[in-house]
Amino acid sequence: MSLQPSERHLQAVKPGHPHDRGGKAQPMLIVENLKKYFPIHGGLLNRKVAEVKAVDDVSFSVLKGETLGIVGESGCGKSTLARLLMHLLPRDKGTLIFDGDPVDEPRGMSLRDLRRNLQMVFQDSYSSLNPRLPIEDSIAYGPSVHGMSRAKARAKARELLEKVGLRPDLFAGRYPHELSGGQKQRVNIARALALDPRMLILDEAVSALDKSVEAQVLNLLGYLKRHFNLTYMFISHDLHVVRYISDRVLVMYLGQVVEIGPVEDIYTQPKHPYTMALLASRLEIDPDQRIDTPPIVGDPPNPINPPSGCRFRTRCPLAEPICAERTPTLGTGAFAASDHRAACHVTNPVAGHSFAGRSLQSIAPSEMPARFAESA
Ligand SMILES: Nc1ncnc2c1ncn2[C@@H]1O[C@H](COP(=O)(O)OP(=O)(O)O)[C@@H](O)[C@H]1O
Ligand code: SF4
Ligand SMILES: [Mg+2]
Q1: Cα–Cα distance, 44 to 162 (Å, whole number)
Q2: For residue range 13-63, what is the model confidence (pLDDT) as tens digits?
Q3: Residues in Cβ contact with 268 at an 8 Å cutoff, skipping those fewer than 6 apart
Q4: H, E, C per residue of the chain
Q5: Ligand 2, closest atom to CA 272?
Q6: Closest residue (by CA) to atom 11 of ligand 1?
Q7: Which residue has the higher pLDDT, 331 or 89?
């Protein structure tokens, strides 16, 4: 199977569905101003000496029935974001609203309810399964803890094994070490589905698999999404896979959202120079794809002390003095499915950037500052 953009899986939750509390226009998840700084301790007294700005004022929505892809270089905060949404890490600041209900606030949704509704699948398929439990029991564990009888929880586990393509008569009694990587990841997906969640966060969930197995698991995720009416947040460093599976894509850089929009808009007409560079560095690998954009230069800056203004300015071919002085934003207001926004002064006609109002695709390398034009 080739990973070409194919059928889009966007589908609204059917009106009247028992799961659909907020109505189909209500986003499944709204994230507002989320922030997490990790303290770094040092010195004789082990005092806090600095902070890693892992997630810094992040806002976005995940719409019902969509797959929102999250991309960005290693260390940009993707996994921290996922863990904050799951409440596996305490947040410093920010609001989470799940289908209209604020999470973990008075009169809002409890953490226990959130865990029923929102589940996560990690990359490391082996360490997330208990090696001493047969896989049937691993899958049945969640429903048992939430009050289901042992017999019912086991029946549910077998039903889910079937759904993820593992015959229960062959696999129910096996232990994790008796499974291949792809089979273990299928078990992890079954386990994540055991409480009938409405949304899954998949953090590099297929990244450790061989290409052919990865394609099978991606197909399985498409089937499960339609069958169980799920919403996905799909995190990956692999731009091909994200293009294949996503309806919309969110691009992160140094703890912040720099661009968000429909998948084909992002891949064919990126608005942020970082996205453009990320896509260009992917195309460089393919000799048939000629690119006119300078590849991304240098390493990301240290998230302890990010650059002032726009965090991408130390690597951006279009950086101007205004980029150091003012922080570009994604704009305000709710995000619609068709919105394509980038946090770059070039996209803002009144920001004072000399390229303001121009599309990135119309800017020739010869127009860029010399150090970048040379490398084009
Ligand atoms: N527990 C932690 N303590 C300190 N720093 C952390 C911790 N977890 C992650 N970080 C830092 O936060 C940043 C974001 O990390 P992470 O969310 O894992 O990125 P990604 O998943 O995009 O690779 C990195 O600089 C990382 O080193
Ligand atoms: S704001 Fe300036 S530095 Fe940042 S991406 Fe846009 S042009 Fe580049
Ligand atoms: Mg990660």
Answers
A1: 57
A2: 454 555 567 777 899 999 999 999 999 998 888 898 899 999 999 999 999
A3: none
A4: CCCCCCCCCCCCCCCCCCCCCCCCCCCCEEEEEEEEEEEEEECCCCEEEEEEEEEEEEEEEECCCCEEEEECCCCCCHHHHHHHHCCCCCCCEEEEEECCEEECCCCCECHHHHHHHEEEECCCCCCCCCCCCCHHHHHHHHHHHCCCCHHHHHHHHHHHHHHCCCCHHHHCCCCHHHCCHHHHHHHHHHHHHCCCCCEEEEECCCCCCCHHHHHHHHHHHHHHHHHHCCEEEEECCCHHHHHHHCCEEEEEECCEEEEEEEHHHHHHCCCCHHHHHHHHHHHCCCCCCCCCCCCCCCCCCCCCCCCCCCCCCCCCCCCCHHHHHCCCCCCCCCCCCCCCEECCHHHCCCCCCCCCCCCHHHCCHHHCCHHHHCCC
A5: 5
A6: 54
A7: 89
Whose alpha carbon is nearest atom 4 of ligand 1? 38
Q: What is the structure's pLDDT at 277? A: 92
pTM here? 0.91
How close is the Cα of 80 to the center of ligand 3, in Å? 7
CA of 273, closest atom in ligand 2: 5
Looking up tokens 């232990």 gives 175
Instruction: Work out which ligand 1 atom sits closest to the CA atom of 74.
Output: 23
**Residues forming CATH 3.40.50.300 domain(s) in the chain:** 29-132+179-246
On the CB side of 112, CA atoms within 13 Å amount to 4
pLDDT at 216 over 60: yes
Which residues on neighbouring strands pair with residue 62, listed in sequence order?
29
Residue 144 Cα to ligand 1 middle (Å): 33
Q: Decide: residue 135, CB within 10 A, 0-12 exposed, 13-18 middle, 19+ buried.
A: buried
Q: The domain 29-132+179-246 is classified under which CATH number: 1.20.58.760, 3.90.1520.10, 2.40.10.340, 3.40.50.300? A: 3.40.50.300
Query: Which ligand is nearest the CA of 310, by number?
Result: 2
Kindly tell me if the per-residue pLDDT of 215 is higher than 50.
yes
Does the CB atom of residue 143 touch ligand 2 within 6 A? Answer: no
